[in-house]
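I need you to check the entry underneath: sequence plus fold tokens. Let me know what the token row says about the fold.

>
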Amino acid sequence: MGITRRGFIGGTGAAGGGLLAVACGADGGTASPPAADLTKKETKLTFMFWAPRVDTFQNSAKGFNQRFPKVQIELLQQPSDFHPKLQAMVAAGNPPETWALELQKTQSYARMGAAAPLSSYYKRDRQVRKEDLPELKQKQLSDTKGEIYGTSPNMSGNFIHYNLDLFRQAGLPDPYDLWKQDRWTWDAFLTAVRQLTKRTADGKATQIGSSAGIHRLWMNANGVEEFDSFVAPTKVNYDRPEAIDALSWLADLRLKQQVFVTSAQNELGYRDTRDAFKAGKVAMADFYISEFSLLADISTFSWAVVPYPKKKDYVIDSSGSGLAMSKANKELDVSWEWIKFGMTREGSPVEADNLLFVVEPEGQKRYIENLKKITSMTHQDTIAEAFKKYGRSRLLSVNEPELSKIINDGIAPLWKGEQPAPTVARDITTRANEFIKANPQ
């Protein structure tokens, strides 16, 4: 996922916390006119979330209470079995007033009628508009009919992170410069990973060029989507020539070229790819930018982020959750104020100080200022431009778990070298299309 599950408390701003983002669903219902003065409203709202850090939400609640001092935000942390327990609460008729939710659950909660539709709230509001969100994010937060069920205070995305010092030491151009010159291509990437992978005479890796990335993004970079629709697919595209080409290329880099790290622990002796990257042993790695806080302590080299290189298109995964409110909720107006807070001019700095990318312009400026405090990071301007131009979405249909399992199970023989790309692509296409035919999305 890349979902925002960790936070970073910045040194600026009074609130210093962050609300995570989420999508969810329901249908029907209209917003009543807002009460004359909700700042004097005395009530309690429950906010249910899965993130491991409670302090980020505590600080968000403090920021919210500066405007709504009599509204108590009760934080209900549910780090495991979040969705089964939320669904049980919905079924029992006692759901939390508000909650954090993964984008993959938008369609499920929409069909359950669990979350309040928000179009009318966006229309009446004077601080935020649905159109403030990127078009892709609006679709991710909406059902198949276009009704929107979530706010999105912040966004995350999967980018290629790279060790600029290793590129310079190898005499390679900065990927940022190549991207700005429209020359950050698959060929440029291949040249770099070959040169940046170091092995001893007996084949033991001492430095590896890159992590493998997300295979659907490489497909996107070759001009093809996984499905004909990420919200309500009717077919998959794994049998397309561009998809087979991308999968074949990835398998070659993994198995023949051996320039991808497949196990940081076994190959390099580090717990995971992030630790190996921070140690300077992996030159490029795909991470979600919501976890910048985990890279903020790098001090031995300069690093930056770029989109995935293109064969036809530059791409990033555009993700991050949203915030939703229960349809069975007696405090809808106050709940709306809470879930929209991070999208407002006064609330977005709370998100930015948590080192989370925000859409609101002033908050976005604050976010870039906070990134510049990470002294080892450079080229901070990449992020906003990439979100504007290159965002792609994972599958968000109602049967996403089942379809994702078909794909992951089907592609495993390719990564093991047991079957070629055309074979696994054909098998995935057959199985997934049969499932979709039997289970319309």
User: Anything to note?
Assistant: The chain is about 35% helix and 15% strand. The radius of gyration is 22 Å.
